[in-house]
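Thread: "does anyone have the structure for this chain?"

Original post by V.I.:
We have the sequence but no experimental structure in hand. Need at least a predicted one for the grant figures.
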Amino acid sequence: MLKPALLLCALTLAGCATHAKPGTLHYPPHAWNLHVGGMTTIMYSVEDDGSTSDVHMISEQPTGFFALSAIHDVQKWKYPPHHPKKNIVVRIKYVLPQVNYSTGAKPDLLINRQ
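Reply from O.Q.:
Generated one for you, C-alpha cells below.
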C-alpha cells in the first residue's frame, strides 16, 4: 500500500498531466479506424491564467468525426499566463497518410493546424 505522502505526490502529478502545449492534437480513433480525413474549425479564448475557455465548434466536415476530439484537446491547452485573448479561431485539418496503414504511422503526427 502506498504511503499517504507518496499517494499525494502521485495524485498531484496526475493532475498536472491534464494540461498540454497549444497545438497538441490527437486524431480521433474512430475516424482513424474508418480512414476518414476532414476538417474542423474551433473558437476559444485564453484566460489570464493561461487556460482556455469557451471552446466550441464553428464548423466540421464531415459531421460527427472531429469536433469533440478537437474541443477536448483545445480545452487542455495551457498558454503562458497574463496574455488573455478572446475569440481565437483555429482551423484543424485531419489528414490521413498516403501510405500503407500497416506501417504503424502515428495518428498524432498527421494533423495539420492552419
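V.I.: this helps a lot. DSSP finds three helices and four strands in the chain.
O.Q.: and The mean pLDDT is 79.
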